[in-house]
Structure formats: C-alpha cells, structure tokens
C-alpha cells in the first residue's frame, strides 16, 4: 500500500443552506457564486429537507444490499457504459503509480429516469421508483443552483446555465453509487479514485465517510474534505468551468483510503448533472469542444491517461500541474 500523507483538513470550504437557496435569499445567492468562484467546492446543509435526509439513509441501505451481491450477479448489470450500469473495480487508472482504481459503481442515467424504466436486471430492479425519486430531488436541487448562479451572474436567455440542460437534447446526467472497500481488505494494486475534475456541470455528493481530497487552493496541497452530518458536498465541473469563461472553478479531487478511518467499506452517492451533448466551449488552450466530445475523450483518459495526447491535462481539466493547483483566472473578481 502506498504511504498516505498526513491528512490536512479542508476547514475553509463555504457552507450553503438549501432552504435559503430555495427561498432565493439574495445573500445566499451571492455566497453561492463566491463559493463556485473561489473554491469550486462547498458544503450544502440539507437538514431543512427531512425528506432528502431520509432518502439519503434509505439509499445507503439499498446500495449496501446491492453491492453485497456476488460479482457475477452485479456483472449482469454491466453494460460497458460510462453513464449507466455496473462497473467493477479496476476499470480506470488509480491514484498511485501502477495502480488501478479501487471502487465499484452502479449508475442510473437520467435518460432511463425520463423514460420511466431503468435497465436493471438484478434484485435492485424493484427499487427503481425510489431511485427515480432520489434522482428527481437531486435534479431539482442542482438545477435550482444553476438558476441562482445564472441570476447572480446576470445571465439571460440561452446564456443561462439551465438552458444548457434542456431536455430537448440528450444529456449524460446520471446518479452513481460508489463503494470503496475498507482499508484492511484493499489489494495494493486497486486503490481509491484517481485525481480528476468532474466532467459535468454540478455534482451533488452524499458521503458520510472520509476519503475525499481536493487540491486545495488555500493549502496548495491535497486536503481532506471533512464529512459533516446532514451536509452534502457540491462541486463545479468542467461543463460550468469552461462555458462560464473559466470564472467558475472546477477543482481537482480524488479519493484515497484513510488508514485509521476507513475501517468499514466507504459508500458515496453522486448525482452528476451534465449539460446537453452539443453544448460548445473552448478549453484553456483555445481548442473547441462539444460537451459530448469532452466527455468521451475524458473517459478514455480515465482508463489510460498515458496513451492519450494531453490525457493527464484533460483528466484534471487543465487545472493542475504536477499536483500543484494552477492558479486559474477565477477567484479574483468580485461578485
Ligand atoms: O466517492 C467520492 O466521494 C467522490 C467520487 C468522485 O469524485 C467522482 O465519482 O467523480
Ligand atoms: Fe469527481
């Protein structure tokens, strides 16, 4: 097992409140934009939404039951897709030299949600209505934040972030369950989740256990994001970073096992809100992309960054250079 540096906690992440954002509180809206500009990551206090808090608990139980099944049963849900179905451990490159990733996942796409039918074949199939409820709520929350950001940035018409997510065109939005095995049972060659920025627009992450690290602009080093009860973690992805003219920060993060803290399997739930496939943008080198091209190129890089021209850079959204955060142009402007 590679040695893991002493944890540095990220205590400086801003905290936003779901109820205040829903009420379109002007101060909270300003805080949201500042958080997306300066840190790209923030805590979202969900404690005002008892239904969501209940869903989170229930989802954890459901996903534990799912992952406990034998590998060959879970493989019945494998579809060789990056947005739907089961993926075993080791599909992608891991965080340390010569390692593969150390997590398994199950994804349900928004396309399945909108069609009202998930292509699940195993025991989990009868949980589909609950999974769809969770996705609906996660979608409402993330889209509401897109609205608040657009308002605060004074965007109108087709420049507003909501319009990038229109249901008329396909998107690769999905809900993912992730399981990282407990520290004791990790094999040295499949570990954690490699450094990356998220492909989509906003990620709503439900994780009660340690392991998530960000490349902190404050500490200029890897910092653990401390799990906080009743709080989700939200982060900006590349599909808001580039289309916002890089004013919103898509920050590099990863997951690594924590020796004295990961005594149990680690479970996280991520809602990956993504823009529609044809959304155009220009990257930091001036190259033009559509969201779908970026997505496909980046997923290839997840699997083998060394074999792709600029794979490393695509992986980290061109935000990082040798584990040092490249100071982007965000964070300096006033809201
Ligand atoms: O499992 C986690 O806490 C984070 C996962 C993640 O960063 C991702 O899947 O993009
Ligand atoms: Fe991520």
UniProtKB/TrEMBL annotation:
This protein's record includes keyword Oxidoreductase: yes
GO BP terms, alphabetized: small molecule biosynthetic process
Source organism per UniProt: Periconia digitata
A GO molecular-function annotation: metal ion binding
Protein name according to UniProt: Fe2OG dioxygenase domain-containing protein
Iron among keywords: yes
Record-stated family: Belongs to the iron/ascorbate-dependent oxidoreductase family.
InterPro entries hit by this protein: DIOX_N (IPR026992), IPNS-like_FE2OG_OXY (IPR044861), IPNS-like_sf (IPR027443), Iron_ascorbate_oxido_reductase (IPR050231), Oxoglu/Fe-dep_dioxygenase_dom (IPR005123)
Record keywords: Iron, Metal-binding, Oxidoreductase
Domain Fe2OG dioxygenase intervals: 170-275
């Amino acid at each position: 097992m590679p040695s893991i540096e002493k944890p540095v906690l990220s205590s400086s992440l801003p905290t936003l409140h779901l109820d205040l954002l829903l009420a379109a509180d002007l101060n909270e809206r300003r805080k949201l934009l500042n958080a997306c500009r300066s840190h790209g990551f923030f805590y979202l206090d969900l404690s005002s939404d008892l239904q969501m808090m209940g869903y989170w608990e229930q989802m954890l139980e459901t996903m534990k039951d799912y992952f406990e099944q034998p590998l060959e049963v879970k493989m019945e849900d494998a579809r060789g897709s990056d947005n739907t179905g089961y993926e075993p451990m080791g599909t992608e490159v891991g965080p340390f030299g010569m390692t593969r990733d150390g997590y398994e996942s199950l994804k349900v796409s928004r396309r399945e949600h909108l069609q009202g039918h998930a292509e699940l074949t195993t025991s989990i199939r009868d949980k589909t209505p609950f999974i769809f409820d969770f996705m609906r709520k996660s979608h409402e929350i993330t889209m509401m934040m897109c609205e608040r950001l657009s308002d605060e940035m004074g965007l109108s018409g087709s420049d507003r972030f909501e319009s990038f997510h229109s249901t008329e065109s396909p998107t690769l939005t999905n809900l993912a369950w992730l399981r990282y095995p407990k520290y004791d049972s990790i094999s040295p060659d499949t570990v954690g989740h490699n450094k990356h920025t998220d492909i989509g627009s906003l990620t709503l992450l439900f994780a009660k256990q340690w392991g998530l690290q960000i490349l902190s602009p404050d500490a200029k080093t890897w910092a653990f994001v401390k799990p906080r009860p009743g709080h989700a973690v939200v982060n900006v992805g590349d599909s808001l970073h580039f289309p916002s003219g890089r004013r919103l920060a898509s920050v590099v993060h990863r997951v690594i096992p924590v020796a004295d803290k990961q005594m149990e399997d680690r479970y996280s739930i991520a809602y990956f809100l993504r823009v529609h496939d044809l959304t155009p943008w220009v990257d930091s080198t001036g190259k033009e992309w559509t969201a779908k091209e970026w997505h496909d190129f980046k997923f290839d890089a997840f699997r083998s960054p060394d074999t792709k021209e600029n794979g490393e850079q695509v992986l980290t959204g061109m935000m990082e250079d040798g584990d040092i955060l490249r100071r982007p142009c965000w964070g300096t402007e006033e809201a």
